[in-house]
Automatic annotation (TrEMBL):
It comes from Heliobacterium modesticaldum (strain ATCC 51547 / Ice1). This is Amino acid permease. It is found in: Membrane. It is a multi-pass membrane protein. The keyword Transmembrane applies. GO terms for molecular function: amino acid transmembrane transporter activity. InterPro entries: AA/rel_permease1. The chain crosses the membrane at residues 31-53, 59-81, 102-130, 150-171, 183-202, 214-233, 254-279, 299-322, 351-373, 379-397, 409-426, 432-451. One of its GO terms (cellular component) is membrane. Gene3D superfamilies: Amino acid/polyamine transporter I. Keywords: Membrane, Transmembrane, Transmembrane helix, Transport.
């Protein structure tokens, strides 16, 4: 049993450049906004308050710096792979060419967890902000239609509806989806900059004391939580086959979107904890709006709700998009049924896969209460970052002659820093999160041996024969 068989990197490069059925329509600007669309959302509008109150206090700014460093090192590794191998599948595809099929399967299975649960969690967050906005306008939705059965309702209908709308948009085409994403990013960036411009005048430095109420360990645990706020830049690499000039534009989109968002996160968290004492954010799901209310700027608080809805919508769009492209890549390799890689003749999108993904996410969002989803999503993402970083190091030694349009600086040290930072953040997550993650990965191993191993497109004929005989 050859679990470590690898895809030919040369064939992957040729395929991404000449043979893909997906339409190439995206440029560097689209990719940067796609990254910002995926990154700025639930993290900045929800998690900042929780992380400050329960983990880091005003030192939340350092938590964002640490999480940003971990992502920054990993982003450089992603940029090298994405420019070299512009094929759908992101970390799954890169691992297939460097670490072998079994490791690639595990990474793909972890990415399915990341994008699927992130999409469900984000749509539930969207529903909460939507309900608040509607109530602010004087309308009241029935509690039975905005809560899952476990929460005393029948279905979280707004969450279901927004998932189906985004799914319909993605099934029509990436160009149309990118236009909607670009508009939404403009709206939420305007709101974030408005908050910074108004809020900076109401900062009281006394609120930053004590700066580290939970100590250094609080900063690290805060970083492990707010890491969720950075998830998304890796989704840019899933668009590789739909980029007009991937060798140049993918590194620009990945690195620039992460840099912009990191700066904004640091500034916003500093202003938040400067306006409102960190302890007052406990149990608050809309910390940015609360800060504006404390500052007496209720008109800005109203805009924040609009910006949050726009921001969370773009995150949902990119997460579902990333999920469908990972399914697409794994199906095309034979590890999942071919249904997931069929391309619509008119829209040039994996139409069936997109709708199947959307319906599953809508069901989870509508009927399942989300508890520790953020932590599970973080663990799946961090594991992908670790393997991509290791893959860059291995490929430098295995294939030093390859022409790399973008070279990760400081190899092997930069990818090693990514591995160390990510491993430390993984160790900061609760044991229950690890337990659920290991159960999910165990299910993935079973699926691989029952289906993926015997259906793999790169399996040698003798392997297929032996498998059938056994």
């Amino acid at each position: 049993m050859n679990l470590w068989r690898k895809k030919s990197l040369d064939q992957l490069i040729e395929f991404g450049q000449t043979k893909s059925d997906l339409k190439k329509t995206l440029g560097a600007f689209d990719l940067t906004l796609l990254g910002i669309g995926a990154i700025i959302g639930t993290g900045i509008f929800v998690l900042t308050g929780i992380a400050a109150a329960e983990h880091a206090g005003p030192a939340l700014v350092l938590s964002f710096v640490l999480a940003g460093l971990a992502c920054g090192f990993a982003a450089l590794a992603y940029a090298e792979f994405a420019a070299l191998c512009p094929v759908s599948g992101s970390a799954y595809t890169y691992s297939y060419a460097t670490l072998g099929e079994f490791m690639a399967w595990l990474i793909g299975w972890a990415l399915i967890l990341e994008y699927g649960l992130a999409s469900s969690a984000v749509s539930i967050g969207w529903s909460a902000y939507f309900v608040k906005l509607v109530e602010g306008l004087g309308f009241h939705l029935p509690a039975t239609l905005v809560n899952p059965p476990a929460g005393g309702g029948i279905v979280n209908l707004p969450a279901v509806i927004i998932v189906l709308i985004v799914t319909a948009l993605l099934s029509i085409g990436i160009r149309e989806s990118a236009r909607v994403n670009n508009f939404m990013v403009f709206v939420k960036m305007t709101v974030v900059l408005l908050f910074i411009g108004v809020g900076i005048w109401y900062v009281k430095p006394a609120n930053w004391i004590p700066f580290m109420p939970y100590g250094v360990s609080g900063i690290w645990s805060g970083a492990a939580i707010v890491f969720f706020a950075y998830i998304g830049f890796d989704a840019v690499s899933t668009a590789a086959e739909e980029v007009k000039n991937p060798q140049r534009d993918l590194p620009i989109g990945i690195i620039s979107s992460l840099a912009i968002c990191t700066i904004l996160y640091i500034v916003v968290s500093a202003i938040l904890t400067g306006i409102v004492p960190y302890s007052q954010f406990r149990g608050v799901s809309a910390p940015v709006a609360l800060a504006m209310q404390v500052a007496g700027q209720n008109w800005v608080a109203g805009f924040v709700s609009v910006g949050a809805i726009a921001g969370i919508t773009t995150v949902l769009l990119v997460m579902i998009y990333g999920q469908t492209r990972v399914f697409f890549a794994m199906s095309r390799d034979g590890l999942l049924p071919s249904l997931f890689s069929k391309v619509h003749p008119r829209f040039a999108t994996p139409f069936i896969s997109t709708w199947m993904t959307g319906l599953i996410i809508a069901f989870v969002a509508g009927f399942v209460p989300i508890g520790i989803v953020a932590e599970m999503v973080n663990l799946g993402t961090l594991s992908a970052f670790v393997f991509v970083s290791i893959g860059v190091i291995l490929l430098r030694y295995q294939r030093p002659e390859l022409k790399r349009p973008f070279r990760c600086p400081g190899v092997p040290f930069t990818p090693l820093f990514a591995v160390l930072f990510c491993a430390f953040l993984m160790g900061s997550l609760p044991w229950i999160t690890w337990k659920l993650f290991l159960i999910w990965m165990g299910v993935g191993v079973v699926v691989y041996f029952l289906y993926g191993f015997s259906h793999s497109k790169i399996a040698a004929p003798v392997e297929r024969t032996n498998t059938s005989e056994e």
